[in-house]
Amino acid sequence: MGIKRLVYMRGELEIEAKFKLERVEDVEKKVKRIADFVIDKIEEDIYFNSEFRDFSKSDEAIRLRKDVEGVSLTYKGPKIDKDTKAREEIKVRIFPEDYERMIDILEKIGLKKFAKVRKRRKIYRKGNILICIDSLEGLGDFIEIEVEDLDLEKAKAEIFKLVKILGIEKAENIRKSYLELLIKSGLLNTSNDFK
User: pTM for the full model?
Assistant: First the structure.
């Protein structure tokens, strides 16, 4: 089922915005009226870092994700837009039975497991818009809105139009990733969990 991505340089362009939800039930009711339900799942992510290149300083990420749809390895480049979390994204599917082997490969090339992020994600679709309602223990509820479009400005306009329809303030846009929010909050499962 995955979302069709846009070609960006050698990877693809991910254009999305994230907002904290204080009243998730109210927003989800509105989402259900305008979008089709896709899936409700738990995503378990392991983030990697390197002693040779600190991804937190370069605004990049290497993530290995496992959920009911399978396993994927993703590279996320630095954010390229001040209003959204638009960035290059390169994602590859991994056979589920190769999950542990992929961890071994990443460690063999010098990457170290850095953090675990676990969330419940409900996905809805409205045309070329993917709407994710996420719940993270300790952090709370969020909505991520991603638009598939070749034009960054057009995609941003669609995102913020939908945000207004849902009664969310554009100014409350969060450009930090869940990993960054967990680090800031002190709730992060860090590399100490992997020893």
Answer: 0.88
